[in-house]
Structure formats: C-alpha cells, structure tokens
Amino acid sequence: MNIIETEISTIGNGKIKLIDFNVANIAYILFTSGSTGVPKGVPISVSNLDAFLDAFFQLGYHLNENDRFLQMFDLTFDLSIMSYMAPLCIGACVYTVPSEGIKYMQVYKLLEQYDLTFTLMVPSIITHLRQYFDEIRLDKLRYSLFCGEALYEDVVLEWSKCVPNALVENVYGPTEATIFCTRYKINSNGSNKQLNGILCIGAPMKNVGVAIINDNLQFSAPFEKGELCLSGSQVTSGYWKNDLKNAEAFFEKEGIRYYKTGDLCFMDGEGDVFYSGRVDFQVKIQGFRVELGEIEFHARKFLESAAVVAVATENSQNIWQIYLFVEGDLTHFEELQNYLKLHLPVYMVPSKITGVKMFPLNTNGKIDRKALIHIFNSHVS
Fold first, then answer.
1. If you write DSSP's letter for every residue of 290-342 in order, what string do you get?
2. Which of 86, 176, 203, 332 is buried most deeply by CB count within 10 Å?
3. Tens digits of residue pLDDT in 127-138
4. Mapping DSSP to helix (H, G, I), strand (E, B) and coil, where does residue 95 land?
5. What is the per-residue DSSP string for 112-151?
6. What span, in angstroms and rounded, lies between the C-alpha atoms of 121 and 266?
7. Count of domains in the chain?
C-alpha cells in the first residue's frame, strides 16, 4: 500500500486544511461489522476528513490550546478520531482512558481529576454513572457531546445538572459519513424534541445532506418514517473492495449520491431528524411491524427510567419473538408484564423478561445486543 503523505496547515481561528499529496487520497480505513457481522472496510479519504474538520470548527465551539479533551474510545472506533484530531489541530491536550479497570469509572476519574473541558461519549457511560450523579459536579466541563447510541432525554437532563456550565449536544453519524454529521442542542429545561424518550438527532452539519427515503426510494413527506440517507463530502466513496455491499448501500437520485444508513427516521417541518431505531430492529410479529424502541419506552416509563433493551430473535420454530432485558434486580416482573399488556398491543408484549446485573458493553462502550441474545439463548438451551 502506498504511504499517505499529508500536510496540515492552520487556517485562522483553529480551522484546519488537510492537503493530500497521494493519488489514493485515503486517510484511514476502518472495518465495521454492522448488523450482519460481515466486516466492511470503510475508507475515509483525506477529503472526507477535511470536510468533517471544516464542519466541526464551524459548529461555534470556542476551543483553544487550553482545552482538555477526553478520548475514551478504542482506536478502531471512529469517534476516537475526533477525540484526538480536533485537539491536535488546536494544540489542546488529550486525556486517554487506561486499559485496566471499568471504563465508565475511569472516565469519571479523568473528568474529575483533570477538569476536562470537552467530552464526546457514548450514552451508556452516563447510564452507568447515573447512580453517582448526586456526587458529580464538573464545573469546568464546557462541552458534553453524546454519540453512538440512542440518547434518552431523562438521563441526559439529570446529567446536565452535573455539568452546569456545559453545552450538551446529541450528535449522530455512521462511520461511512466520517465520525458525525448531525447535531442537536439539548435544552436543560426539558423542552426538547424527542420520540419515545429518545432525543432528536437534529439537523445536518455543513458539508452533509440528509433525506428520508421510503421503500420505493422516494423522498418521504415530513413526519413520514423511512430510512435516513446521507450525501455530501463527508460520505465515503464506497466500501473497500466490496461491490455487493456498495450496490446495497449506495444509490443515486436526482444527480445526488446517497448512502443508506440503515436507521429508521423521520424529519419534522423544521428539518430536524428523529431517530426511531434501526431498520433491522423492525420485525414482523404475527404479521405486524414492530419497533423495539416503543417497547423499551413503555418499560422504562414503568421502571422509572431503568436501563432496558428489547431484542427480537427467531425461536426453533422460526417464529420471531421479543425478549426484554432489564438492568439490575428485577423485582416487579408481573407488574411490568401487566403494565406492558395495558399499554401495548398483544403482539408487542415481550415473550420473556429477564434481569441482567449489568448490560454487557462492546469495546466501544455501547450496549452489546448480540451478547444479550447469546445470554438469553444460553438460558433457554
């Protein structure tokens, strides 16, 4: 493989231009399994990365060499790139999480010990820290961003009290669109756009276009659900040597090339995007289309915002069934089951509810849904 040579130059006020001298124009390649488990190489060009940095430094954050950034991700997770690239561009410090110990506790220690000013985290981190919120006070934190998972309004409003001087935002983006590409500013007073308790992912950043596309590849009307598709200079040119996946994931419409994210969304009349779950999290139970996020919403409401995950899997008779996992001690099983029966159609009520001491996390700090399915299968086998 050719060596990639780039020159980094500063363009006023911390804005960066990456100049590529390599014909291949590849900054890095990350492999992601997605929902299928088949690895896909995502080549991000220097131009893609340049477009992200351009958009990032246009977000209005007031950053300089005195800032202190958290870097909590494995280097194979694209959120890590922002966490060290942005501070590198402005001469700021980066604080990394040590490999030993429990990640969310190590994050807390860094936040408190070094007075970090900028964090990008997955929501699972503050879900695990929630039991310590009464003890957490981070006055020096100025920017608190979340990405990588659905962000629930209730927990982030509680978190905002721990970071009274911080701008809290929900950002979104797949690896294929270079780190993140939409953002939503969260109001600590609670007047936020949300769906089933999940905060809106907001409007596109500079250099990105968004569209909601239905099954017929037609643009959806406002508030009509469909698959979120992205265009623009942050979007990769295609998967690495994988023509089949390229044909599935990319298409052209009205002269614009789009990437299909696999996320079920809709857009309101103001152009803000709402996340409704993964397209592949939609299943048909007894002929009805079911969105697992709606089940999680009602379960969390009954359990007063406890962490829950609904998964769907096929049983030995090839019939899809829904299972609900609750983090912590499950002491109100019958009450929860009866509550769900009152608030959900019968085909959406989980076949089984299981308590888990602590949700398994993958290397990126996200809840590992595949591991939960494995836990359930090991119990019933």
1. E-HHHHHHHHHHHTTS--EEEEEEE-TTS-EEEEEEEES----HHHHHHHHHH
2. 176
3. 889 989 999 999
4. strand
5. HHHT--EEEE-HHHHHHHGGGGGG---TT--EEEE-SS--
6. 24
7. 2
Full-model pTM: 0.79
Pairing of the two strands 118-121 and 167-172: unpaired
Residues 75 and 137 grouped into a single domain: yes
Same domain, 306 and 229: no
**Run of H or E including 265:** strand 256-267
Find the domain containing 32 and state its range: 6-276
Domain boundary among 255, 276, 297: 276
What the block records as the tokens of 237 is 């040119």
Q: Rounded to an integer, what distance in angstroms lies between the CA atom of residue 370 and that of residue 363?
A: 13
> Which residues have a Cβ under 8 Å from the Cβ of 38 and sit 6 or more positions away?
none
Burial of 324 from C-beta contacts in 10 A (0-12 / 13-18 / 19+): buried
Tokens 């979104």: give the residue: 172
Burial pattern 124-163, b for ≥16 Cβ within 10 A else e, equals bbbbbbbeeeeebebeebbbbbbbbbbbbbbbbbebbebb
- Give 287's pLDDT tier (boundaries 50, 70, 90): low
